[in-house]
Structure to design on (206 residues):
C-alpha cells in the first residue's frame, strides 16, 4: 500500500484546527475553522474521491481520540464522509494506552509496524490530521504521496504542518487543481532527498 499524507493547510503552513474554532485549541489557538468558508462542490467531490481510495486510516493518538469522539456522532446518511470514516480500518500509532473502541481499530507502537503494514498489498493507507506522525513518517522515508488542500489564508499563528527537524525531503508535483472558492488541491510524490543547487545565471539552465 502507499502511505498518503492528506492535509489541509493555510498559505503560511498552519494545519491546526481547520474545521472549527473549538476543534483544537492546544497552546491557546483561537483561529480554527479556517477551511470551512472555502467548502465548495469541487472540494467536496475531490476529497470524497480521495477517501474512497483508502484501504485504511493511519492516525496519531491525539487525532484518533478526536476523530473517535466526533465521527460516530455524524449519522446523516447524506453525509459523504461519515460512512467511510466510520467503516474504514483505523490504525493508531501510539505507545500509550488507548481506548480503541472506534471499530475497527488496530494499535501500532512503532514505525517498523507501519512499514510492515505499508508492505502489504492494497491501495492507500491515508494519514489525516496527525501532523506529527506525518512528519515522523516522512523523515523515515515511509510517506509515498503528500496530498494538500491549500487555503488562501495567512493565520500568523497555529501549529504548522512541517515543523520536525531532519533531512530535507524532495517532492514532485503530480496533480494540481484550483476550486471555484480558491482552494489549491495539490498532489506530490515523495522522491527522497531534496535537490540543492547554486544559481549560475539563466543561460546555465536553458
Amino acid at each position: 500500500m502507499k502511505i498518503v499524507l492528506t492535509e489541509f493547510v493555510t498559505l503560511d503552513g498552519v494545519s491546526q484546527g481547520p474545521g472549527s474554532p473549538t476543534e483544537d485549541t492546544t497552546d491557546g489557538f483561537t483561529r480554527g475553522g479556517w477551511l470551512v468558508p472555502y467548502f465548495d462542490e469541487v472540494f467536496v467531490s475531490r476529497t470524497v474521491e480521495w477517501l474512497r481510495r483508502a484501504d485504511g486510516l493511519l492516525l496519531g493518538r491525539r487525532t484518533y481520540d478526536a476523530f473517535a469522539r466526533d465521527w460516530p456522532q455524524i449519522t446523516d446518511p447524506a453525509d459523504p464522509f461519515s460512512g467511510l470514516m466510520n467503516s474504514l480500518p483505523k490504525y493508531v500509532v501510539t505507545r500509550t494506552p488507548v481506548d480503541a473502541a472506534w471499530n475497527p481499530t488496530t494499535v501500532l507502537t512503532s514505525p517498523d509496524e507501519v512499514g510492515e503494514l505499508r508492505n502489504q498489498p492494497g491501495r492507500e493507507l491515508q494519514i489525516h490530521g496527525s501532523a506529527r506522525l506525518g512528519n515522523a513518517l516522512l523523515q523515515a522515508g515511509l510517506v509515498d504521496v503528500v496530498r494538500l488542500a491549500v487555503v488562501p489564508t495567512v493565520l500568523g499563528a497555529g501549529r504548522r504542518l512541517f515543523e520536525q527537524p531532519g533531512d530535507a525531503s524532495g517532492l514532485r508535483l503530480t496533480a494540481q487543481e484550483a476550486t471555484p472558492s480558491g482552494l489549491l488541491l495539490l498532489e506530490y510524490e515523495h522522491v527522497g532527498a531534496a535537490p540543492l543547487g547554486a544559481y549560475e545565471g539563466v543561460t546555465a539552465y536553458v
Strands lie at 2-10, 54-60, 90-93, 105-108, 124-128, 145-151, 169-178, 184-193.
